[in-house]
């Protein structure tokens, strides 16, 4: 069977890898592999602390994927010799102010509903687990099994793995899925899936900071998450001294630059409030990406027609869902039944919309672009529930552009006249 | 007369240019022209709002240099065809909180002592002059003649001007002034002057942000300065949509990276407080430089010996003092008397120290490097008055390294698979 995968982000590459290992002849099409959300993401594998109200249908899939990650990482390492930075440290969720403490209480109920390990900690106990936590922290929850990988290392390893597995990587743009010479087509183009597959995927913009400890500065031992004046923040530390802080969330269009000053300010303020040591680090990079959001925040995984499958719309959870998505799509390609994927049916919105007399047309609210009357980045806004809609005419702009990723290491040489 | 200038920052290049125009045969030595403070600076020419208590001896020199700038910029443009971004817009100093309002009152007295135009404004009048000023501003002062240039454009134009004037640029390191084959030597090596000339110049670290307006975002019409919880902040706008925000000030050693996260946070917080629109811009670059500070904050301009002149130690005022310094040094090279330069005598500290029984030895407090007990960037600390001291043994690290200047414009192409 000849399979064409559209999109060489980490989802597309993982699907290609798994399909090739199961005997398919696979080609992946992408003019710029990894230019999308894959290399901006922070890499949390957090079935507990990424649980959200209204997204309960995702819980078993997130859990299965989290449990599959250690083995998936080992397989990737064995196939390529590359480490993906899987980090077996717990996640701590903390709050400073009263309102945020109440938010932690609400979240705890949600966390417990995942039926995975969750532990309420006193502030003193929390600082024992994470000595860099602010002394002002008043409430904390520990999720011992919420872990993290390095998404850039994952993407690099997947690129190597597909090559080893004999997958062909075609660095070219696909304008129309019908142009592809293949028995089966997998659409894994992130935000670009909207235009290519007539799917309700919208870009949800997010800024992420990469900091670097200098010299012997102490580093967080855990992944630290929290709420600061109602805004979520996370701090993911990697072996080697990189500290990733994320993420803003807005739907102000497709520009990677508008409002990054405000986004950086907000991310630094919130992360410094939880972990004051953050202020001592070097701000090495600001990157902006676009999460492929869907109307119900659940991914689009399943058949579009007899020849086409979708593996897209992973919103905040792309990295976490790599192993489960890759195996699910490989199963579907092999003709296996996967009734557990029903909540992710990519045609679920069209089926709902069918009885309507007059389906709404025009650009989805998510793609309305710059709002000149807004005086602030609309950060962490609740995901907009987009009504079933006609294809978004502006969605062809939605595919991510190369991230403005800016290593800021100074040159090592001294310069003296 | 053969003149060797050590240092191809803007001071060194301007001295070389003026000396060459007056007939000298000039060579400038620098392995990396413009790698120091010249291209980090914001470029304010602000004899009023850069006035500081204890630095009154600088007032006439700052005034003369400010008055010389328009002609100097025209001459540079005529010689090179390059524009230096001289911007004839006023400077507004504003405050939000009561404590900062009191600071503005104190500053106003100092500003008036410069005998240049100063105007107290009501908040309403201030917002008429600068519509982007926060509605929370409670006090403001206008300095109609404090202006700005683009220091990078200035440095580029000076590089072109010295070439036109026949100056030789030698991209090589000078280890010892005695190695130079010249009749006269001008030491203009910024922080590197400490080791080369046995001068009390210490690096005062500062971070500066370069933001960029996106699309049709409105820009400040004026240079906005202010005090936010006692910390000074400035916002300099250039034609073309660049907005420069500065600057932090600390003496935590020679690393360009330590604490840039905290520095960026503080600069954004303070600038957004005065001009909320800042949050909407793109954070295009973070750069860190080292101001060449002196014990009394006054520059070192004058004779070191019969063959050697100093033109260094300009601290915060390097760009503002380019024309006056260049003409002063050209006068001294021509054998003219310049009694007005007496306060800047580069040997003034040695003369004071001479009668001492036991001159203090060891590293100056300013160069004590990283303070592990400090939990925050010591920003905007009052300049340390360093006692007359022996040469700082750590000063040979003080010469600036290339700035981690990070253009973050995304690539223009759309990428779609």
UniProtKB/TrEMBL annotation, chains A, B:
Pathway: Cofactor biosynthesis; thiamine diphosphate biosynthesis. It catalyses: glycine + O2 + H2O = glyoxylate + H2O2 + NH4(+). The keyword Oxidoreductase applies. The gene is thiO. The keyword Transmembrane does not apply. Keywords: Oxidoreductase, Thiamine biosynthesis. GO terms for biological process: thiamine biosynthetic process; thiamine diphosphate biosynthetic process. GO terms for molecular function: flavin adenine dinucleotide binding; glycine oxidase activity. InterPro entries: FAD-dep_OxRdtase (IPR006076), FAD/NAD-bd_sf (IPR036188), Gly_oxidase_ThiO (IPR012727). It is an enzyme of class 1 (oxidoreductase). Residues 351-417 are annotated as: Disordered. Its EC number is 1.4.3.19. It comes from the Bacteria. Residues 2-332 form the FAD dependent oxidoreductase domain. This is glycine oxidase. One of its GO terms (cellular component) is cytoplasm. It holds the Pfam family DAO. It comes from Glycomyces paridis. Signal peptide: none annotated.
């Amino acid at each position: 069977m000849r399979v064409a995968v559209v999109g060489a982000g980490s989802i597309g590459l993982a699907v290609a890898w798994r399909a090739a290992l199961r005997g398919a002849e696979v080609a992946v099409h992408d003019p710029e592999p990894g230019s999308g959300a894959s290399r901006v993401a922070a890499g949390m594998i957090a079935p507990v602390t990424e649980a959200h109200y209204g997204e309960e249908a995702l819980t078993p899939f997130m859990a299965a994927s989290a449990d599959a990650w250690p083995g998936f990482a080992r397989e990737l390492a064995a196939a390529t010799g590359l480490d993906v930075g899987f980090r077996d440290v717990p996640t701590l969720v903390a709050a400073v102010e009263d309102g945020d403490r109440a938010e932690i209480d609400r979240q705890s109920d949600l966390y417990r509903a995942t039926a995975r390990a969750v532990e309420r900690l006193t502030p003193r106990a929390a600082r024992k687990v994470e000595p860099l936590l602010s002394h002002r922290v008043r409430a904390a929850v520990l999720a011992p099994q919420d872990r993290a990988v390095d998404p850039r290392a994952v993407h690099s390893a997947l690129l190597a793995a597909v090559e080893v597995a004999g997958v062909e990587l075609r660095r070219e743009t696909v304008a129309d899925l019908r142009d592809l010479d293949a028995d089966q087509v997998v659409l894994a183009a992130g935000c670009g899936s909207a235009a290519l597959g007539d799917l309700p995927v919208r870009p949800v913009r997010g800024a992420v900071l990469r900091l670097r400890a200098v010299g012997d500065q102490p580093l967080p031992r855990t992944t630290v998450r929290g709420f600061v004046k109602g805004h979520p923040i996370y701090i993911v530390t990697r072996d080697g001294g990189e500290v990733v802080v994320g993420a803003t969330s807005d739907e102000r269009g497709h520009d990677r630059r508008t409002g990054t000053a405000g986004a950086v300010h907000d991310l630094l303020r919130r992360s410094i409030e939880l972990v004051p040591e953050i202020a001592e680090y070097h701000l090495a990079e600001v990157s902006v990406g676009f999460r492929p959001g869907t109307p119900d925040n659940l991914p689009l995984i399943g058949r579009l027609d007899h020849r086409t499958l979708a593996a897209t719309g992973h919103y905040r959870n792309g990295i976490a869902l790599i192993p489960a998505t890759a195996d699910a799509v490989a199963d579907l390609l092999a003709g296996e039944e996967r009734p557990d994927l029903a909540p992710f049916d990519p045609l679920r919105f069209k089926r709902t919309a069918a009885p309507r007399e007059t389906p709404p047309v025009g650009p989805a609210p998510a793609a309305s672009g710059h709002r000149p009357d807004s005086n602030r980045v609309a950060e962490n806004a609740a995901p907009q529930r987009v009504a079933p809609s006609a294809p978004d005419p502006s969605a062809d702009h939605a595919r991510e552009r190369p991230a403005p990723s800016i290593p800021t290491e100074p040159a090592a040489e001294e310069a003296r006249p």
